[in-house]
Structures are given as structure tokens and as C-alpha cells.
Amino acid sequence: MAILYKNKQIPITLQFVMSGEVTSSLTFHTLYDVLLPNQQPEVFINEGMSIGVRFYIDEEIKHLPNASLQIETSLYNDNGKTDTIKIPIQFENCITWLFQYNRNEEFPWRLGIYRVTLIYEGTTYYTFFGVNPIHLNKQQVTRIHNFLKQELDSLCYDLVFSNHSQSIDHFLDERTEWYFIYTKWLKRHEDLIYQLLMQLCRNVKGYTKTTYLEQPMLRKQDHKTTRWQYTTKGISVNKGNHPMIFYLNKQKELDINTAENRWVKTTMVSWASLIKEAVRQMQQKYNEQKNNIAKLEQLLQEENANKEAIKKVRNIALSVKEAYQTRITDLSRKKKESEKFAQYLYMSINIAQRVYYQFSYVLTQTDYRFIERGTKRPVIKDYTAHLFIDLFEKGQIKLRGLENEENTLVPVLKPTWQLFELYVLFNVIRIFKEIGYTLKTNLQDQFTPKREFIGAFDDGEFFVLENETSFIEIWYEKQVTIIEIAEKQGEAFWVDDRSGVVCPDIRVDYYKKNEKDEEFMGSLIIECKHRKLRDLYLPNSYSSTEAQIGKYRNILYLRENAHRNLRERSAVNHVLCVFSGTKEDPLETKGRRGKFYRLFPSLSDDELNIVGYDMLKEEVIQWVQATQARQFF
After folding, report:
1. pLDDT in the model for residue 42
2. Could you tell me if 391 and 378 lie in one domain?
């Protein structure tokens, strides 16, 4: 039985079911749809666990009432809006599963608090539930989030200010122009703008006024029209004829040219003019980029022709050939950057034009074309008009830079297991920086300082760090496939047919610098698991995780610049598994196929204090030393 506001009861039961346990029926409230200060949800569910609900009527009710349930999620639909799970009411006490682990689906919630909406017989009731992480607590997950943001900012700083000769986003300053910022804001509010415009068009508010018209037929009369025929004006119009030719008729009409509507039109015109100016400036930039791309393409063709020509020249210096290749590479990079920025411009122009056309339609094809523009803002009484004007003014605040969105709380956009993978990745990068390596660049040219936090990381992302004697590549979720595909794709690593395709969470490749070329010396594999140790390691038998990391030993190196001891043998000379675990798990465990290290944020005052970090760092240092000497662990 759901106990509602002021102890009102309705014959409906709503319960959460998780891990075989059933919660008590939730309590709903009718007054608010947000949690009050210092208030906590009644029910908390665990992230990643199978979750179901029971939503049914009591047995004594013989008919289904008008009731529905909506559960908020952290997923987004195709329109970019938060998705909800809708559940119909049932007669029986059965379970509707919201998520089942064995289905390999995405868990529909992240850490936080979510709303449950019950509509019963025309009345809306609200309640809330919370989502907790497994193995770690909310404070530790928050520290993981803060650590990633801090490390990401640090890497961006290194890339921009320490590697001017490397490939970075040369159009970063352009993207901070007002028209780009404003277009992004328009994109987020496009649906709301359209809804408000259509609502204003369909419900143009006005007032009824009385007018008098001179017409050849007798219509509605009053005392003023009766007196008119005897006035000088009436006699003059009728030219003394009797009976009369013209009559003064009374008429009621709706006047929409009110002060409120005039100010709404002024807002529409100002808004449309602002968007039009943004489109004009972006179109100008777009045309410049198209011309620049054409020039680069022409230069690239000329340099390629020159490169082919010098191949026919005998005794040409190697430095000349390399100079042509360097020029071609530089032109190709610039052309690719210009094309990417032109595409960004094209998309931004389309967004702004789409919104501008909505304003143009309203101003030229609806009743607003008959309304004059206002010069002074009146008191806005209509709710839709108030929302519309308020949204325009918020956009103006955004345009003037008075709203700093970076100070708002960034939500956890990834599942905790994926956050943990990135947490380990950035800690590994941090370790190499602490032992003397310098971050150079991301060779895929996809890592720029303005990337969205965490959400933009793709599989196959990698970072390059180097010192005087060596450089390393740190790969994230890089797939290693069979030799036939690896050769076609130009990959350096392959795996034999028996193992199939493998995808280590983190792969660290070590290259020794030589006078003419670099020499591949070995790889370190780090598998990341947001689990307990007992789910990863079995003392008396092989676990699925150990079988998984055992396959990594079958990775081979394809190219000729490998150390002679690596030919025809495994390119991987060490494997680690880093896991979050629980407080009962040891920090280090030696398995049959590799070592297990526990890594998690400490709850001390120092947020950078990470339990297990020093042990992992020492293991990495030993791997570097052993790889330099070509020793296998």
C-alpha cells in the first residue's frame, strides 16, 4: 500500500526488487518533484545489479484504475532528451525487469538520485530513489571523477604549451568566437524555442474593441450610428439622398496590437537578427576555409608531382627526398585540419539557419506580421510570452559571458567500470611522467583541449611519452587482430588464429631510440577490472580473467624494427590486472598468468592520495628496467 501526502492511501503497491530482495512499498508525495534540502531517498539500488519493480493494484480492486508510472534514467533518446522507463499497472504481483545483468545491456542509471512519477486518477505523485556504486563508495567515485578532470586538464596544458611543433587544434581560438558559443546554446534549446514560437502563434492574445465603419448596407446599430446620419459628416457622405446610400455600422474586432505582443515581436526581431548575423559570420569563415582547402589541394598536387619527378633523377640526395615528404605531410595535415574545421562550420551554420527559419516563418506568415514593434517593455502577463522573453535574455547572458558553465557540477557520464578504466589509464600516464617521461602528443590528432570530459574518448586512443633514450606509446582499448587484417590496416601487432581478436584495456609499448631508427623492445598489458578479487582470481583453478590475460601473451610484433630476441615470440613481456576490489582484498596478489594490484582513491584529506599507487609505480619501473635489458618477468 502506497502511503501518500497527508497519509492519503491508494490501492497501489510499488516495490524495487534487487538480488532477490524486495523493498518496502515506496512513499509518494504530491507537492514537489525535487528532493528538499537534507532529504534522502527511501531506496538505494546498486549500480550494475539486476533491478526490477512490482507495480500492481490491491486484490480487492476488480478493475484497472487510470494509473501509470514513469522512472527517470540517465540515458538519452535520439532527440537528446533524458529517457524514461514507462511501466503500466498490473493486476498480479509480478516483476517487471528494468535491467538484467545477463542480457549484456547498458545499466540505465549512473550514480545519483532519480525521480519516479506516478499519475493516478489525474493527480501526479513523486518519489525518488538513489544509485550507489559497488565496491567503492560515492566519495571515492567522486574523487575518481575529480582526478580524471584534473589529469585531463594537465594533459591538455602539456599538449598546447609544450609541443608547438606537434599537431594540435589550430582552430581552437576560432571555436571560442561568440557565434560558435551562441550556436551551441541554440542547439541545446532548439526544441524549446520551436515549442514556444508555435504556442505564441496559435494563441495570440488581444482584446476586443469597438469600431465604426461606413458601409452601403445597414448592419448593427447603436445610439452613435443613429446620430451619425444627421451630422454634417453623415449628410455629406450621403449627399443629401434619402433614403441613405451609406450607413455607419458598429463592429467588434480583436485587436492583437497590444503592448505585450509588440514587445514579443521586438524580441523575435532582435533574436532573428542576432542569429542572422551569426550565420553571416560563420558563412564568411566557411567560404574562407573552402578557398584555403582548394589552395592546399593544389599545393599538395604540385608537391606530389615534384616528388614523383625526383624519383627519376639519379644520385639525388636523401635529404632532398625527405624534404619533399616532410612538405607533403605538413600540407596533408593542414588540409585535414581545414576540412575538419569547415565541417564544423557547416554543421553550425545548419543549426543556426534552422532556428532562423522558424523565426522568419512566424514573423512573415502568421498574425505577428500585422503587429507593430514595441519600444518599451510592459508587464508580461502571458506565461508563454514570459518564458520566451526570459529564454532570449538568458541567451544574451550567455553571449556576454556572464554565465560560467564550467563552474557547474559535471555529471558522471560513464559507467563506474569505465571510469575506473580511465582512472587507471591516467594514473599510468602520471607514473611515466613522474619517472622522467614527457608527454609529446596524441598521434591520432584527436586529442584537443576543448574535448568534452571523458565522453569523447574512443577505442584505440593513444598517447606518446618520451625521454632521451626511449619513447613509449600508451594505448587505450586498442584491438589486436589476426595477421591478414593487421597487414591490410598497417598495424604493428597481430595475434594468432587460436586466440582470435583481443582488446587489452591498456597496452604500453616500449621503443628504444637508435641513431637511425627506433627499436621495439616489448609491451606491458594492464587489464582493468571494477570487481572483487574473488571474481578475478581463484587459488586452485584458472578464472575467466586469468584465461583472458593469458591470451595477451600470444600478441606478436609484425614489423622489422623489433629486437632480435622478439622475432617469432611474444611481444608482451609482462601482464598486470588492476582492480578496485573491497577493503578485505590484499593490495597485491601473484597469479599464474600475471599479478593483481588493487588501486582505489583514499578517503584522506589529500585527494591525490591513491591506495596502491606506489606499488603499481614500482612495478612499472621494474618493467621499464627489465625491458631495457630484454628480460622477461
Report:
1. 79
2. yes
